[in-house]
Amino acid sequence: MSGQVLLCIQGCDSSMWVRAALRATGPQGLLQDSHNGSPRPDAIAGIPTRNRDALVQGTDTLAAAPQSIHQSLRDGNCKRPQQSPSQWALDETWPPGMTLVLTLRRYCEIANSAESTESDPHATPDSDFGTEGVLRIHLLEAQNLIAKDNFMGGMVKGKSDPYVKIRVAGITFRSHTIKENLNPIWNELYEVILTQLPGQEIQFELFDKDIDQDDFLGRFKLSLRDIISVQCIDTWYTLNDVKSGRVHLVLEWLPRVTDLFRLEPVLQYQSQQSYQNKAVPSSALLFVYVERAHGLPLKKNGKEPKAGAEVILKNVSYKTKIFERSTSPRWDEAFHFLVRDPRDEILTVKLSHSWGQGLGSVTLPLRQVLSEPGLLLDRWFSLDGALPESQILLRFTLKILDTQLALCRKVEGDVIIDEVIPKWDPSHLDLKHRGGLSIAGENGGGVAGQVKLTIGYSIEESRLFITIHACRALAPCSKDGADPYVSFVLLPDKKATTKRRTATKKRDLNPEFNERFDFDFSLEESAQRKLDLSVKHNVSFISRERELIGKMQLDMDQIDLKTSVTQWYDLVAEAN
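Now predict its structure.
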């Protein structure tokens, strides 16, 4: 014996009314005569006999039914279905004097579902919902790669067929291969959605494509934190574990804004870009929160579904977990999508039983989110292809992906004016000259120019890094000025394992290098080192031109490595 709800219906020729009560009865009492209690055939109400077993007997105490449930039954505006008992309703052909017996659990489920849309009209995601950002990687070019395709036992130097692998957050991107080129130009774009976790790195590896096994051409790693701190970096990175080679990148941590007026210039910038890998920069980031649903239809056999939701945007889709046996599943899952143009893209949410039988769907043009305040849409959505009461609670948030590069292009009439894309200039990090900095040569020769360096230590990576940004006002070495490059070593270093050098800049007394060098040292070991740096003029062995332009030394223990220091340092000319 178990509790059931009796919905008693008087004849349709008189005014309808509803009465809820408790009655102890067996599962056979689906339809009973209200006068003598004798059973009537299920077919009278179009209820298949097989659906009896689908009823789950409840034992809870009946709560007062919401007014919306009573009103729906009073109105009698729902047609009696033939598919499943979850769709039982009233119409004018309901047999007079019949009693429809629902389980208490089913009645309370319907009642609670109706109340939930009124008491909880909005989704309640966690505080970290929508906090992810987008890293945009412009792989531009490389220079001075080592030649791996040698001939005649190495007597004849050949070329390499280089390509790049980029790994970040478990995702791997691979560039196309450029045949027989030690100075390849890729001009490729990659985008990835990232959570700002401590210690995240982006790894770059270069290989020479071969028929059997690809040869190693070098590697380097970058800290996501460093990119986020400046948002846009345009620099050369020296390859580690090889004799020569460097890679030119532009890295952007894209600002996310809800200012709809930024969408047009971003789309305009997007339309002007062209990349070898056919990538199109995204203009927005869409966050979707799938909270819960209610009033879902039962399966064809009358059992409650194992409901799951699939969220689809173009060729990208995500699935929630499967919720066990309920017409009111709750998922509480978040997803995100890169969006090219939110004005013409459409998102679909499909519900199904174990990714089979459909339970309804929602179709949302993203332009609806653009019309909402703060680009936020949060409400209950009716499900197409389901019951009238079937709904799902969703939250949609759009963030426009602004870009510093978009600000560097202006359009006047039909003419596009390209301004210089700003290179990374962390001058806002410059510190005032610290007292006690030991710069060797202050008591020696005259000033031969300056060099700009960033020196710091990454605790997450356990790595010392030195970035050589630029030189200025270098002393000329010939009538054409100078062909400068920078070389340095970290003393003490008897075997010169820490010796590094930049590329050479032709005829330039104010060269920009923007090259970073990393060293796997502990913080204590880094503080014990001394930077011995020279700026030199690239000359041939037979030339009589002066080679050394200027030099400087810096004790690492006299700067705060953990905060990193960006500063101009004086170069001292060699004393005669």
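The chain has four domains: 2-119, 133-253, 284-401, 427-572.
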